[in-house]
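notes to self, project folder thing:

trying the whole complex as one job this time. last attempt i did each chain seperately and stitching them together was a nightmare. two parts in total, labels are on each line so i dont mix them up again. if this works i'll redo the older ones the same way
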Amino acid sequence: MRARTQDTKQNKGPTPVGTQAVTYRGASDAEIKNRETKPIRQRPGSGTIAESMIQKLGWALLSIVGALGLAGIALNRDEHINSMWLIVASVSIYLTAYRFYAKFIEAKVMALDDRRATPAERLRDGHDFEPTNKWIVFGHHFAAIAGPGPLVGPTLAAQFGYLPGTLWIIVGAALGGCVQDFVILFCSMRRDGKTLGQMAREEIGKVGGVVALVTVLLIMVILLAVVALVVVNALAHSPWGTFTIFATMPIAVFMGLYLRYLRPGKVLECSAIGFALVIASIFGGEAVANSPEWAPVFTYSAVALALMVIAYGFLASSLPVWLLLAPRDYLSTFVKLGVVVMLAVGILFARPELQMPAYTKFIDGSGPVFAGKIFPFCFITIACGAISGFHALISSGTTPKLIARESHATPVGYGSMLLESFVAIMAMIAACVLDPGVYFAVNSPAGIAGATPELAAATITAWGFPVDAAKMASLAKDVGEQTLFYRTGGAPSLALGMAHIFAQGGGGKAILGFWYHFAIMFEALFILTIIDAGTRVGRFMLQDLLGHIHKPLGRTNWMPGVIGCSALVVGSWGYFLYQGVKDPLGGVNTLWPLFGIANQLLASIALCVATTILLKMHRAKYLWITCLPLSWLLIVTYTAALEKIFSDLPRVGFLAQARQLEGAIAAGKVAAAKVADTQTMIFNAQLDAGICVVFLILVSIIVIDSARVWIGILRGNRDATVHESPFVLTQLKAEEV
Amino acid sequence: MMSRLRELGRILLGILKEIGDENAYARHLTARGVPPSKAEWRLFSEDRMKRKYMRAKCC
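result (full assembly):
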């Protein structure tokens, strides 16, 4: 191999090389010399032989507990199992994976070096770059990666039963998602916090950088549409939920004004006030729902709500950030973390039994929540709970600029994703503690289950999951809703499951309505923040791209460009949202797989970049670390995308759906008044197929481009230059980290 | 035991302050050597938010 690396040469000595402004702080020559000869971090297991034996025994026991837990989950068929099986199995495996696999990658593959100054130290500026306590970075990173994906995905995948999703969440995270986040964080940290796009451009080529940018923009559009659909379906015909969410807007504006004019900088104080007001608005929502005068004012159809969300997205992304987005972002992040902790405590306290079977008949692809067989659609649907391409954007964003020691990348990169995976396990538990009949009644669209509650209940009972309309009506009354049928999207069933768990802490049915709407508020709060922030980011990306065609369009202060690009971004996701709410199959059936495919393809891009960098670092013998999840993702996503395009089943394949609708029009089976709508549905199905094709082309380009680089390096006819920042000896003292 | 709890509380508060940008604001004030004020917060938060919301939020 004819490879030249700056790294191998520079690792031999501590001499600072490069042009960055380096701040040397406080260490004497003797201390520096000492650091050169002695590792700063003690290796694990460096105690006495007895301590070492106890540790080994402990890890062996934990591994056995994990294996037994998994066996208990996998082999149980006839009885309901307790949720603690899932908790014990997942936590044991997470800890074992962290102790052995993450540490193996840390030591053997990436050779993290605590003597090496991180960008946080070398480029310290008091703003972005700042060496920070590892647990604070861990919390910050986890808050940044935790979104609606790991909550909604497992909830939807519960239609296959609890077993397939649970296994993939645990295994996928340990071998795939955590590895991706960890390696990308490491790569970005060694490159002064460069973004995924910049690394793709530098390590693979210009094509890779452009493809990454376009892919992210497309994913943003699908993501915004699908999360907006989740909110719309949760709030449709729900005056309680709608009032609560409407109330969060003036509350956020009040918080913005409070922070700007009354108590500048007091974010925690302001968020505590905002939280108290939001809780008050949940009680206000109950009063509104019970008021014959006010309830109709806040009762909207899904279509009306979709139009409101679209208008909101445009207006909110045009408002000053400090007024609405930033204060609500603070609030939603705190609420999100609080709810994750509450859910964990609630599950440990209530230890509920799972009502859903280990697997259901819908593994054959006939599921009402979304169509498609367990392979590949279980993996596509779980998405963020196991592997999320979006995490690569966060791992190459703020986080690498805060890490004080290279070894902190392990708990932050690998550990945070393990925690995210645990959130997905909790979401799976919340969905599976519901009676399966209730779960399917909530998540099945009218187009499949039947147009009336009685018909839907009969259909679902015929599937083998008994439920009756009276029971559903009673449950709806308990949670303060008019109906719980056809509430597709995952959010309402997740909220029901969470309310069920929280209510076991005290209050029972009397408090079920509060907890249900608390959960809906929590989900809607951060989804609206994603819509607002995502529209802005999409606009910046679009302006960045269009600026190459017409320069003024690239300027973020040129109002025609800002308004035009905002309208284009909102119009794009708004179109898919509108398509989703009009879809008789519930919208989620179409949009969530599209989102899952896009997300997993972004993860493939990230793993291509990671593989290229490992190869350039002479780690060819460890390439399986990234190639294993990469190969799996490519197999899963290509299969899913091709099935979504070409499957003969109209519920699965977009083109088959278009053909079926065309056939219905041609055969005169569509009423004259519905022909225009049907033609729109045909166009939408063809458009969705086109989107899948674009995704496949984009990722194929980057995979082929990467493979070209890999083969070149392995054959020795391509330089393997890594673009790492130069080695600089750390000057940070132990007490500073 | 109490010292460990205090340490845990300190870390939790640190996480909340980091998420809420209060730590970053404190660093900003230290770097500029100025006391907190409306003008400084405005200066800090506008720059901070401008960069923060040019990046994608996670799903």
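what i see at first glance: Chain B has one domain: 2-52.
need to look closer tmrw
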